[in-house]
Write a structure and sequence with these properties.
187 residues, Alpha-Beta Plaits, 2 domains, 4-stranded mixed sheet, 6 strands, 50% helix
Length: 187
Amino acid sequence: MTTTNRTLNRIILLLLGLVAVIVGVTIGAGVLTPVRDALQPSLTLPDKVTVPAASLWIIAAVCAVVIVLALIVVFTRGGGGTSVAARTKTGDDQVTVNVALVRDVIDHELDGVHDVVAAKVDTYTVKQQRAARIRVHVRRGGDAVSVLDAVDHAVNTLDTTLGQQLPVLVHLTGGTRTALAKTTRVH
């Protein structure tokens, strides 16, 4: 639910990883004798490399461009996450609902459901509209249909509380956390 392209991210990471491996092997072959000896059968590396001063400036400029592009990617990545779940404006008045209210309503509604280990709520801005993602950790062997019914009831309660419908993505998960969770006992 972010605005970045997943495939493009993977391609960029692959290319940067390949470049890093090639640079690391080349530097290692020039500095470390065991690396040089291991690569000797497949590669012929010169004993001494002379680099003109102008080339060093070009290499420094390319490194600076790569650093600037990396910083741009880091600071512009991950758009979409927000702490505002809903905002209503009537005349001069404006009401803003924080994600904490949404979390509290969902947690309260799912508190008594036996098969739910935990629930996590995040809100995002997707195409200029706010939406919520509810991740529900279901106990191993739990009834997914009853959990979905409980989540549906919780979302209806949330819509009633907010006074408007909030688009919701429900994600049921299992795994280590649910496998290790103990059942609730009442004594």
